[in-house]
Design goal:
single chain, 210 residues, alpha+beta, 3-stranded antiparallel sheet, 10 strands, globular
């Protein structure tokens, strides 16, 4: 109960420019997800249990933009509240689009530094369903917050400069880097989300899951 109250202490009315909507997966979004291969027969969650979010975010240009995301209905309201707090904190997000826009390709979405949630796929290096397949995981600014394998390998070249996890300067991309002591990480954890930066061996600094 206390975790939920933490969010409600920050009503959306405090964020004058923040707007968010939560909708069922309707015909047009359903079509995008199916044609974009982020959803298909055999996925572990039904489309009826997912929700389409449209939310404000601060871009790397310091301007307000509207982004979209698909998550599980059980976390939909909570996610909008978390992103309201991220907005209020000024945390920059490169872009926020459905993985369907990238043909369901996690690789292409990451290459575009796209913040996203639902994608019906297996977990990296596993045959088990990813938390993303249930709409209960979010990848935040994946280039600045890379997945680092046990052997230290980083697959995306643009992420190599972010191997060392420090804030180096006051540039926008540097502000997007997530460290254990950062407010953004604290916001997610306060709401009961796990952070991939806390994993042992493998590190997935972009990844939050419920």
């Amino acid at each position: 109960m206390k975790k939920r109250l933490f969010i409600l202490l920050f009503p959306l009315i405090l964020f004058a420019d923040f707007h968010a909507s939560v909708k069922r997966i309707d015909g047009s979004i359903r079509k995008r997800m199916l044609s974009g291969d982020s959803y298909r027969k055999g996925c572990p969650v039904a489309l009826e249990d997912l929700r389409y979010l449209n939310m404000s975010y601060i871009g790397f240009d310091a301007q307000t933009h509207r982004g979209e995301m698909v998550v599980h209905k059980e976390v939909a309201d909570e996610v909008t509240e978390i992103f309201a707090l991220l907005y209020r904190s000024g945390y920059p997000i490169r872009q926020m689009r459905l993985v369907s826009d990238f043909g369901g390709s996690d690789w292409k979405s990451i290459e575009a530094d796209n913040t996203s949630a639902f994608n019906c796929r297996k977990a990296t290096g596993s045959q088990k369903w990813s938390k993303h397949s249930y709409g209960k995981a979010i990848d935040l600014n994946p280039i600045e917050n890379p997945y680092i394998a046990r052997n230290g390998h980083i697959a995306h070249n643009a992420s190599l400069v972010y191997r060392k996890r420090v804030h180096k300067n006051h540039k926008v991309a540097d502000e997007a880097v997530l460290l254990k002591t950062d407010k953004v990480v604290h916001i997610f954890k306060k709401c009961g989300w796990k952070w991939g930066g806390d994993w042992h061996g493998v590190k997935d600094y972009q990844h939050f899951s419920k």
